[in-house]
Amino acid sequence: MAYILGIESSCDETAASVVEDGRRILSNVISSQADFHMQYGGVVPELASRMHVDAVYQVVEKALGDAGVGLEDIEAIAVTYGPGLVGALLVGVSCAKGLAAVSGKPLVPVHHLKGHIAANYLCFPELEPPFLTLLVSGGNTMIVKVNDYCDMEIIGRTLDDAAGEAFDKIARVIGLGYPGGPKMDKAGQGGDINAYRFSVPKTGSRFDFSFSGIKTNALNMINESKMKGEEIDLRDFTASYQDHIAHYLLDHTLAAVEATGIRKICLAGGVSANSFIRALFDKAGAENGLDLYYPGLGLCTDNAAMIASCGYYEYINGNRAGLDLNARPSLDL
User: Fold this and answer.
1) Residues 77 and 60 in one domain
2) 136/98 same-domain check
3) Is the pLDDT of residue 227 over 90?
4) At residue 76, what are phi and psi to the nearest 5 degrees?
5) Domain co-membership, 151 together with 98
6) Gap between the Cα atoms of 225 and 196, Å rounded
7) What backbone phi and psi angles, to 5 degrees, belong to 198?
């Protein structure tokens, strides 16, 4: 039985968690800055870093207290070291290094995106590799073949913008504000998914994505309507836009299923909470005999439980970092 302390600070959530054997959450504490950054229409990196400094040791202390353990009971300390905002990452990394130094516990570096994939282990104790993951977030969109807990390869990825950015940008333009993804999801409920048509991007690959054209197409529709003095039906427009992106993600995921023969699929990342994407994948899963796994909504967005879970598997695989560990904001998978 191994207790792993996870620390996450890659963007605007300061989080700490204690997870047992990579599967059982004993505590999961999140201090979110979302309401603060809302007034700016997005995350302000310098302000985010300062708020992480104020919160990080408090969330760690609460995570240990909620789990009913002390630092001496922890097997290892896992921390997100990339990718993310460099100042924000440095806060979590510095905290983890300090705790490792005073406790003598091993320090385990965790890739943020691998953490998102590991969120599924916390919800599905029976889940084991190999499987495919569609990882969709504000900064990344990719299809990952998970060969083993620490062995992954990217099959397809976005060539420009991420799906989350495509949601956030249009949400701002139509006045929904930040964070755009959840607000757009809510705005589209009950809308006609066929009311507006969007172009299908071409990437030259069955697996790679491109979202810049979809955003431009949507912006042109909005501007054209304004020029004509016409009003966009907000509910139908957001429903159609989300359904189009959901189909685009599904089509490429099914192509990866066909190419690999792997019929076990996980969703991961903040955008995987989108109800249009989940509904479409549910339908396709039933029609194609796929085994589908989605994290609970609270584990889709950034949290430390997923970092602790991933950290457990990195730890038993022998992955360790020294006290010279540094943040790597552009870390590739």
Assistant:
1) yes
2) no
3) yes
4) -160, 160
5) no
6) 12
7) -120, 155
How do residues 64-73 score in pLDDT, each as one tens digit? Answer: 999 999 999 9
The answer on 32 and 150 residing in a single domain is no
Contacting residues for 133 by C-beta, under 8 A, at least 6 apart: 117, 120, 143, 144, 146, 265, 266, 267, 268
DSSP, residue by residue, 151-185 = EEEEEEEBSS--HHHHHHHHHHHTT--SSHHHHHH
Report the pLDDT value the prediction gives residue 38, as an integer from 0 to 100. Answer: 80
Task: Give every CB contact of residue 318 below 8 A, 6+ residues apart in sequence.
Answer: none
Is 100's pLDDT higher than 90? yes
- Distance, in Å, from the CA atom of 79 to the CA atom of 73, rounded to the nearest integer, reads 17
d(CA 114, CA 130): 14
- The per-residue pLDDT for range 149-167, each reduced to its tens digit, is 999 999 999 999 999 999 9
Residue 85 lies in a domain: yes
Q: State whether 309 and 278 are in the same domain.
A: no
pLDDT at 79: 98
Q: How far apart are CA 275 and CA 297, in angstroms?
A: 10
- 290 has pLDDT over 90: yes
Helices (H), the chain: 34-38, 45-67, 86-103, 112-123, 163-173, 180-187, 212-227, 234-260, 275-288, 297-300, 305-316
Q: Name the average pLDDT for the chain.
A: 95
CATH number at residue 293: 3.30.420.40
pTM over 0.85: yes
Determine the structural domain holding residue 141 and report its residue range: 129-298
